[in-house]
Amino acid sequence: MRAHVLTRCRRVALALGLAGSAAVVTARGQVPPPLAQPTAADLASGAKVFEVYCARCHGMDGSGGSGPPLTRPRLRRAADEAGVIAIVSEGVPGTSMMGAWSLSEIETQQVAAYVRSLGQRPPETLTGDADSGRRVYDSAGCAACHILEGGGTAFGPDLTDVGVLRGTAYLRESLINPAAARPERPLPYEPYGYPAYVQVRARPRRGDEVVGVRVNEDTFTIQLRDKTGRLVSFRKADLQQLAFEPETSVMPSYRGQLDDTQLNDLVAYLMTRTGRP
């Protein structure tokens, strides 16, 4: 957690350096209008802001990471450039997308124009076959840990709309190196999140050790979900040992278990899951 907070502080410091002495976006709810005709210089400036603020989650090229891909003509939460400006300014409640409060008005307009320009790029070509990917999903036992369109088990992330939430590179990485590709879980009482689905070992002073993923944590308690789906809550004062294993994932790696064709097919199938009927 400490390292994550320090990373957040460094990002804010970089952003403040970009903003310089320019006036920042005004009070919450008062967002600037889109640029009427963004110039090449506007887009270049917006790209620099994007690299500092957005690339960590959305990828350097906007193709997605722990945050949604932005290289699409229409974004789910922002139908137009004004919608992008509103999200950049105010964030998205209940997610790790925070408002960029330290950006100046022109920087907000420029980064929004740059984000919309990403949607004008040619769509990403999926190298796999989605129908075959559905069969890989079933045979690999993904439903034992994931819910998809109402079916499965809620131990891991819900995949019903994963195609609009993640990019192909991130999904492939999550299949072969799951510990390196974790989503973030936002904290409702802090302006940052923490890595989700981290494996934790909790050994109470009395009773058996519990191994599961962290569901929630505060200063005094921690809640885990074990592989059976059971939710367990501990007071930290009652634990003999509490060990976090960030380099370990409860999700198995499919490196060597699925060949390249199967991996491509599974990624293609997941990218078609958009949450729409």
TrEMBL record:
One of its GO terms (molecular function) is heme binding. PROSITE patterns: CYTC. Keywords: Electron transport, Heme, Iron, Metal-binding, Signal, Transport. InterPro entries: Cyt_c-like_dom, Cyt_c-like_dom_sf, Cyt_C_IC, Cytochrome_c550/c551-like. Residues 41-119, 128-274 form the Cytochrome c domain. Gene3D superfamilies: Cytochrome c-like domain. It holds the Pfam family Cytochrom_C. Residues 1-27 form the signal peptide. This is Cytochrome c oxidase subunit III. It comes from Luteitalea pratensis.
